[in-house]
Design a protein that fits this description.
Keywords: Transferase
Number of helices: 3
GO molecular function: transferase activity
Protein name: Phosphotransferase enzyme family
Oligomer: single chain
Strand order of the largest sheet: 1-2
Shape: elongated
Strand content: 5-15%
Amino acid sequence: MDYMTGRRLDEVWDTSRADQKFSIAEQLHHYISQLRDLKGDYIGGVDFGKLIIGQHGPLEDGPFELERMFNEFI
């Protein structure tokens, strides 16, 4: 991801015109559709390394060969 300058969507949404909101919604729909179309047979980090989860300190494990192994981790 890259940092993009500008104002956040939640800061401008209420003052945006209906056509702007519709355009934004279409763009988001397109991005989400692309993400949903991604298929994979791997459960783990994006770089095929360890999966790191946790809000109060990371838990690391993996990569996982089986879904069962991933489920036991979480």
